[in-house]
Structures are given as C-alpha cells and as structure tokens.
C-alpha cells in the first residue's frame, strides 16, 4: 500500500477529488472512533454559550422592552421602532440571467471568435450558463483541426471534469481502442462535447442549457471545419439530428449537420459508456466505425 507521505501534492489532490466524487465522508483510522459519543459529549459545550447569552439578555432587558411583547389593547397604536435601531437586512438572491438573454450573449460571444483559441477564451469567460457554477473545468475541444475529423460526445462526466479533458477515464480508454481499430489516434483528430460543463450528478442538461451551449459547439465545428463528424451517444445524436429517436434508430446512417455556413456529413454511433454498460452492443459500434472509416477513405 502506498503511504500518504509518499504521494506528491498533485497526487494527493487527485486522490481527495476521487474520494469526494465517490461520496467518501470519513477516512479510516488506526483505531475505531465513536462519532456518536463525540457528538453527545460536545453538545453541552456547544449549548453553554447560548444559554449564558440568553440569561444575560434577560437580566439586562429593560421593563419597557419586556412590555413590547404584551398584546396591545384594541384601538391602541403600535409604537414605532426606536430611532437608530438597525433595520432587518434584506435577503439578497442571485438573479440568474434570463434564458433569452443568455442565449443571445452566447451567440454573440461565439460569433465574435475568429479562431479556436479565441473561442476557448470566450467560453471560459462566459458566465451565462448555470452549469458552469458547479463544474470544476470548462471542457473545450482538443486535438488536430487539420485532420478533418471530429468526434463529439454529449457532456463531460466526472473523469472529464476532474481532468479538464474530453473523454477521460474508462470511457476515454475505450474510445482510444475504438479509434485505433480503424487507424485513428486521439492526438491526430478533434475531440469535443456538446456541453462544455458537467451537469450536477451527471443529470441531462435542460432545454435552456442546451440552447445556451449550442452556439459554442456549432462555432467550434465551423472554425475547425471538419469533413467528417462522428456523434457519440443518444443525447448527441438528438442534439444535432433533432427528434426523439434513440441511438439505435439514429445510428448507422449518414446525415447532414448544419454548423454556421457549413453543412457536414455526420454519423451517429454508441457512446463508449453505453458499450461499457452493454458490451453486447459493441458489434453495432464496430459496424459504425467501419462505415466511418470507409467514408474517410473516400476522401
């Protein structure tokens, strides 16, 4: 077993993030600790200052103050608050940007970018989507735009959010093997996600969140100018193709996808996570990969 003192600060931070994502609240110690007994013993110590403060307040309370709690007779007027008394602080609430304004702001920020580098900067500085508030990282498209090949997934998962890269963790390893089977490598193509921020609990993004993110992913495609698109997962296929079909009805067919001034051929297939959950579907994914390779070979 590797001891904690043998890990670097970066490795310790990664380990803590892993435990947090796994829902670990307590670390194992050498001897058992009765947390219930600790809590029961600490209760009197916590309540003592509160009781002392209440006793002191009653002793210093003036008669006029005590009479303020007596119900007033009918017809009597309630006295005004003492001058100089502090008013109750107003409750401040975070006002979210209306969806329509957020979509317009996203469209303006995306269209203003003239390169992928500018678009990444604009996306990292954009604050109109609530998903960014709970995500650790903004996941931007990475890879070689000159390849003419772009693979797009739905949204980052916990591994992607932690690493700050698309298709990390087990799904990324499986995708690497899938690409290698048809002669492609991660570093030689473009990889990205429809949504750049991980939704809390990996929940599906709302329609408003999808509308806000749409200008950015479409601009990424327009600036990268790929010749072939591989769309992975049910969510991604519906996002670009429309409709309510499942990935099993949308996969295996070349369809046109519009992104800015471009109209590109796109093929949908199963996401690596879907293959990890249902390994029997790998044969379907292999058929799609062969179709994708044949399209690339046509030039």
From TrEMBL:
Pfam families: UDG
Keywords for this protein: 4Fe-4S, DNA damage, DNA repair, Hydrolase, Iron, Iron-sulfur, Metal-binding
One example GO MF annotation: metal ion binding
Compositionally skewed regions (Low complexity) per UniProt: 47-58, 75-90
Biased composition (Basic and acidic residues): 59-68
Domain Uracil-DNA glycosylase-like residues, every copy: 140-290
CDD domains: UDG-F4_TTUDGA_SPO1dp_like
Catalytic activity, reaction form: Hydrolyzes single-stranded DNA or mismatched double-stranded DNA and polynucleotides, releasing free uracil
Matches recorded under SUPFAM superfamilies: Uracil-DNA glycosylase-like
EC number of this enzyme: 3.2.2.27
UniProt cross-references to InterPro entries, sorted A to Z: UDG_Type-4/5, Ura-DNA_glyco_family4, Uracil-DNA_glycosylase-like, Uracil-DNA_glycosylase-like_sf
UniProt-annotated stretches for the region Disordered: 47-94
GO BP annotation list: DNA repair
Family: Belongs to the uracil-DNA glycosylase (UDG) superfamily. Type 4 (UDGa) family.
Protein name: Type-4 uracil-DNA glycosylase
